[in-house]
Design brief:
The complex is a heterodimer of chains A (about 260) and B (about 450). Chain A has a two-stranded antiparallel sheet with strand order 1-2. Helices cover about 70% and strands about 0% of the residues of chain A. With about 260 residues, chain A is mainly alpha-helical. The relative contact order of chain A is 0.15. In chain A, helix 5 packs antiparallel against helix 7 (about 145-170). In chain A, strand 1 (about 5) and strand 2 (about 10) form a beta hairpin. Chain B is α/β, with parallel strands linked by helices and about 450 residues long. Chain B folds into three domains: about 15-125, Alpha-helical ferredoxin (Fumarate Reductase Iron-sulfur Protein, Chain B, domain 2); about 135-280, 3-Layer(aba) Sandwich (Rossmann fold), CATH 3.40.50; about 285-420, Rossmann fold. Chain B contains 20 helices and seven strands. A four-stranded parallel beta sheet of chain B has the order 5-4-6-7, sandwiched between helices. Chain B has a three-stranded parallel beta sheet with strand order 1-2-3. In chain B, helix 14 links the parallel strand 2 and strand 3 (about 265-270). In chain B, helix 15 crosses helix 16 (about 310-315). The N and C termini of chain B lie far apart (about 50 Å). The chains are: A mainly alpha (about 260), B alpha/beta (about 450).
Chain lengths: ~260, ~450
């Protein structure tokens, strides 16, 4: 059990209701693994020796080439591609409306939850540091974020349901059939994140609604809640550069490098 | 213990291209449109996403996390050879890149991978390996003489010695499809557009070598591009007209790369030039032709360079001509099957794709299929013949010349000349049959020739 995290003489409480040390260690491990994975991938790309070159450019050379390619037609063009082709997935929309809806729901649901998590984390620090308040400040912030959290969460669920339905009902078609053996592990992983996430959100909601009298609350270090947070970090951050979901990074980068594609 | 060396290497790839292998989401959109996948009875090994996945696997086995820790995993040579063969079962039409949600530039990716595998030793495919020697030594892929570059000229055609407009004829129109050469030249003469041609100075555009991943061999395409650009520049060309989509693509995309800077002239396709002349009111139609036609967008003119509307504009302006579109048109057209070295290397695949496209044309009810590329024309004629369709296949310049009141006749064809050397739409000429071969002499044991004695069918260079 924890009474919060002492930082610069202030006590920072958390909205996750789990031991911060577990989160900190998991987060650090996940980020390190993510960076290592990204470096391995960059190093792999940097081994390319284009016609006319005599040696590979290396990981940082690859990074530099990718960035310079993205902006080679100007910042304005790069921003246009970023908004229309990456954030709103214009290329998918043109051809596959249902898949576009699925991607948009998953992508924006995910982004929304990420942003809300960052706001909640900021509230944890804002309470003690800016407003000199105890845990009731972040509980209030948490309650205020409950509705948008629900909306983005359901967007994510709907997107995943479409993804699963497509795979279940389209397996007879030659195009989708071979997808099945590739990304089930990822769909199931994502489903696990969402289901445990809803559970965690629900028990945290109960705490907030039942007027907390003291921190930490009774559900502190609830196993499912802890599993959710740890699994999410490992699955969605650490595993990302090594999984098929790596296309979440490489596909937008490719669209940007190719200026929106042909 | 020393770690084993990776079975593959990364030469000819840019960092962004190696990233592209990791960007494929395996959505399968490319598979729905791939013409060779269709023609090969939906063989999954040749679908674009599988080829990307395969090379990605090779890369990860050679340079991924596990390879870094435990050393590269050996990839059997047979597996790489099989991948190479699958990779060459592709016309590099670029349809996969057009529909790819991740925006992967597949045309460049396939060409880089091919170049890598040519250097590795498993590429190219079949008779494609003849291209470097033929083009390096003879400056054309047909084993023809440079002095015959303008042999198609008829006495009525006037070509200027110097002019700011040039007509880059190309090997195919110059040697095998004379009807395109005479039609283009007569149109320009009739429009009072003085033009010059390089004649013996014209070299192959290099497209066949680049498309098949052999551009590095003696740097032939680079030398050819620089030679052509300098020759055109020296003759004062400001605009260069191409009636061949393959040469035009090479001039627009490949030549500036080889030349190292922007070309000192404007490259323009004949269909664009005709549309311009139409806008300027210079084209006067003197004949009418009541026919329903459909237009096939060549990959090299359409998807690769972006010219879609000008040929349609010309067709729509022709008296009596009714243009109907195939279901797959413009950016989403289906390839004719000749590109990427397939016509030379894998003729049965080229024919399979061509029949697919001719079926598309048949569905429209058109009486003629018009295109703007000699390779498409030739391969689609083959597809038409295979299906025994009652449909003419010809080029826009041939139709234009006819409706402008010009003859499309070529010099009397030699016995056994290729069927594509004369107009398919206006059968004013016939090709005399090939004389029977002299009685065979008693067999002698002779060493096999390095190149075929009759190169034309093999060396269709797109």
């Amino acid at each position: 059990m924890s009474d919060g995290l002492p930082i610069f003489g202030k006590v920072v409480f958390d909205t996750l209701f789990i031991d911060w040390r577990i989160m900190a260690i998991t987060a650090i491990i996940s980020i390190i693994l993510f960076i290592v994975g990204m470096y391995i991938q960059l190093d792999k790309w940097g081994r390319g020796i284009p016609e006319g070159a005599t040696k590979p450019y290396g990981a940082f050379g690859a990074l530099s080439m990718i960035i310079s390619s993205i902006f080679s037609k100007g910042i304005g063009h790069a921003l246009e591609v970023l908004v229309l082709d990456v954030l709103f997935q214009r290329r998918t929309y043109r051809r596959r409306k249902l898949e576009w809806l699925m991607h948009i729901l998953i992508f924006w649901g995910w982004i929304g939850l990420l942003v809300l998590t960052m706001i909640a984390a900021a509230a944890e620090f804002a309470g003690p540091f800016l407003f000199n308040q105890d845990y009731t400040y972040f509980v209030g912030a948490w309650k205020a974020l409950e509705l948008p959290n629900e909306i983005f969460g359901w967007m994510l669920v709907l997107g995943i349901v479409i993804a699963i339905a497509r795979r279940l009902f389209s397996t007879g078609k030659d195009v989708q059939a071979r997808n099945a053996d590739i990304d089930w592990i990822l769909i199931i992983g994502l489903l696990l994140v969402v289901i445990t996430g809803f559970y965690a959100q629900s028990v945290r909601g109960d705490v907030a609604r039942n007027l907390i009298e003291a921190y930490p609350p009774g559900l502190f270090n609830n196993f499912t809640v802890m599993f959710h947070e740890v699994f999410t970090l490992l699955f969605c951050v650490a595993y990302l550069p090594f999984s098929k979901y790596f296309h979440m990074i490489t596909a937008p980068l490719t669209i940007l490098v190719n200026h929106g594609g042909e | 213990m020393a770690k084993e060396k990776p079975s593959i290497n990364t030469v000819n790839f840019t960092a962004a291209q190696l990233m592209e292998f990791d960007a494929c989401t395996r959505c399968g959109e490319c598979v729905k449109y791939c013409p060779t996948y269709d023609a090969r009875d939906k063989n999954q090994d040749i679908e674009p996403r599988d080829k990307i996945q395969k090379w990605k696997d090779f890369m990860n086995k050679s340079y991924g996390l596990k390879a870094r820790i435990l050393g590269p995993e050996k990839i059997p040579h047979e597996e790489i050879k099989k991948f190479t063969d699958d990779l060459y079962n592709c016309t590099t039409c670029g349809m996969c890149g057009t529909v790819c949600p991740a925006g992967i530039n597949t045309i460049e990716l396939w060409e880089s991978t091919r170049a890598n595998l040519v250097k590795y030793g498993t590429g190219p495919y079949g008779k494609q390996s003849l291209f470097p020697k033929l083009i390096e030594e003879g400056h054309n892929p047909y084993l023809k003489q440079q002095k015959d570059r303008l042999a198609w000229m008829t006495p009525d055609i006037k070509i200027a010695e110097k002019s700011d407009i040039a007509y880059f004829i190309g090997c195919t129109a110059g040697y095998n499809q004379q009807v395109l050469g005479v039609s283009t030249a007569r149109i320009l003469n009739k429009l009072n557009v003085p033009f010059m041609a390089l004649g013996e100075e014209e070299w192959c555009c290099g497209s066949a070598l680049i498309r098949t991943g052999q551009q590095h061999i003696n740097e032939t395409p680079k030398k050819a591009a620089i030679h052509n650009v300098e020759a055109l520049k020296a003759r004062g060309a400001k605009r260069v007209i191409f009636a061949c989509a393959g040469c035009f693509r090479a001039a627009k995309i490949d030549w500036p790369r080889a030349y190292g800077k922007a070309l000192p002239f404007e490259a323009i396709h004949m269909s664009q030039f005709l549309a311009e002349q139409l806008d300027a009111g210079k084209i006067k139609w003197e004949k009418s032709l009541n026919k329903t036609v459909t237009y096939h967008d060549p990959c090299h003119l359409g998807r690769h360079v972006g010219v879609f509307e000008e040929p349609r504009k010309v067709l729509n302006s022709m008296p009596g001509i009714k243009l109907v579109e195939m279901k797959r048109n413009r950016k989403e057209q289906r390839c004719c099957g000749a590109g990427g070295g397939v016509k030379a290397g894998i003729p049965d695949l080229a024919l399979g794709v061509a029949t697919g496209r001719m079926k598309d044309a048949q569905e429209t009810g058109a009486e003629a299929l018009i295109s703007t590329c000699p390779f498409c024309r030739r391969n689609l004629i083959d597809g038409r013949d295979e299906l025994k369709l009652d449909m003419s296949v010809d080029d826009l310049v041939v139709l234009t010349a006819h409706l402008m009141g010009l003859s499309t006749d070529v010099k009397p064809p030699a016995p056994g000349a290729p069927k594509e050397s004369i107009s398919d739409l206006f059968r004013t000429q016939t090709i005399p049959p090939k004389p029977p071969a002299p009685p065979a002499e008693p067999k002698k044991e002779e060493p096999k020739a390095a190149a075929p004695a009759t190169p034309a069918p093999a060396a269709n260079k797109k």
